Amino acid sequence: MRLVLLICLTMMAFAGNSVLTRAGLVGEGMDAVSFGTIRLVAGALTLLGLCLLLRGGLRLWGPGRAFSVAALLLYFYAFSAASDGLDAGLGAIILFGVVQITMFAGGLVKGETMPARRWLGAALSMAGLVWLLWPDGAVTVSLWHGLSMALGGVGWGLYSLAGRASRDALNATAANFLLTAPLGVLLWLGFSQSGALPPVWDSTGAWLAVLSGAVTSGMGYALWYSVLPRIEASVAAVAQLSVPVIAMAGGMVLLGEVLTLRFVLAGGLVLGGVALSVMAPKRGGGGPLDKRKQGG
Q1: Over the stretch 161-211, which tens digit does the pLDDT of each residue have?
Q2: Calpha distance 91→95 (Å, rounded)
Q3: What 3-state DSSP class applies to 25?
Q4: N or C: fewer beta carbons within 10 Å in the chain?
């Protein structure tokens, strides 16, 4: 039960990220690259402080660190590159669809057993997500922006798979952020020098990026790395399909967005599919959430 609660808390943190990002980009007019860079730096500084306070220091390098840093950088900036030119709902469908493919493939490569109910639950959840987020009217997708969002999904999927080997979630996440942040700042400077970004930041949007980076990204990602070694890759993948539903519910509460019948029905299909997939019993023991409870 404790593990289930941790997963739910992590998904809520991810959904909070989505709400804060939407508020910063849409409500406050912040550009996606600047928002993402502030978010990355704020997360790095917060996690460094927590490591110094709770661990007395930080170990920057370790097995797989370069891979995790590359995956995190790919996610942050491919996602940022796609955000300004892609419908938000369609972007989420591409992102989460590619995350599913990446993490299921990673699980299969590692020899993970995936019962039929998990595949069915994942399919139902993805169908519900498409129904919930598909844009009204004609759909046109820029190849560049669509590909960028897909690369962002690959980046996040790989970053999550790397987290399954984590033995100290806080240290690993802090090191990943601290090593990625300078590279992110260099990319941001390149975008700025090219004139692709607005010269002035909105102060409210910047503070939303700080909050997103320090709390829902930094702490949320550390929590995710503490959960990942204890569950299977495919379970971690399907659980994330609940994030857009939670984020939309948060938008209704915090941003005054309208509750619709489509949200109720499609959101129910997503969450029902997640429950079917994640809580499916396994022969000779507990469900998939029990398999790795001795780890991490």
Answers
A1: 999 888 889 999 999 999 999 999 998 888 788 776 776 777 888 899 999
A2: 6
A3: helix
A4: N
